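So, could you explain the following?
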Amino acid sequence: MVVTIKTYQGRNEDQLMELLQACFEEKSVRSLMNRAHDVYAAMVGTELAGIVFSWSNSFHPFCTYIRILCHPCYRHLQVEEKLVEKALDNRKDSLPLQTSIWETSVSLKELYTKKGFKEIRRTYMTTLKVAHVVEHPFDRSENAELKTLADIEANKHLTDELAGLVKRHYEETHLDNPVAHFSVSEWKDMIFADDVMKNGSYVLVDQSERHIAAYSFLHEGSQENFVELGWFGASDDEALILPIIQQQILDSLNNGIELITGEFDTTSTYAMNVLKHFPFAPSPTWITYRLT
């Protein structure tokens, strides 16, 4: 059987849906394809065996993202390798290529390594059952007070400092894939996003209300019984994050929330410390590769 790589014309919608399902991909892939620079299809006769597409991200503008999907029935035809080669041949600038896969995608892991991609990060996408959490006596600072985002929203000094902390921590965990430049005002807009739970997100503030020691945000989930853990960090002592998250767990339990979901990057010491102290469920990691 011959594999042909050609521009995807959008004429194989049923086969595309079958491909997404066979690859355990969410329908969100469709939205990525809709803003892709290029989409190429691997065809075996009239059958869609795989696709590769590339896109840009304004938040991380210093690379080109690619995604490859291959129907398991056609992997023996080296479809994935042909799609990777198409992505490499189709590079239009000097920007690095970046992609992410589940660690269970063994063939793609081997292929990306063979082609010179380097692993830059692993991300645990996991959940916590709040009813399973035992309250720990985490140390709390005696000279600081826990306040909600709603409490400090009107305080320009504190919100400016919070934006600076969030910016610093995010940049530190994405050194291999730098973030675009945003103003303090833009970072504050991201912090106070529409889905953030202002009364469920906390900052630890010193008694003079001049300094933020730590913070942790919660966001509304897509279902009523769960919420999402967002950005968290500390100015100095990462252990100060733990009592904040424990408070968020207690709040969730009292509000009928069953699950807290989160994404934990191995490039973040804060994230790894949280995973060590709370019983998040085991999960495969989402591996990010980069080719410079």
Notes: The first helix runs from residue 13 to 22. The chain has a mean pLDDT of 93. The CA atoms of residues 129 and 228 lie 12 Å apart. The first strand starts at residue 3 and ends at 7.
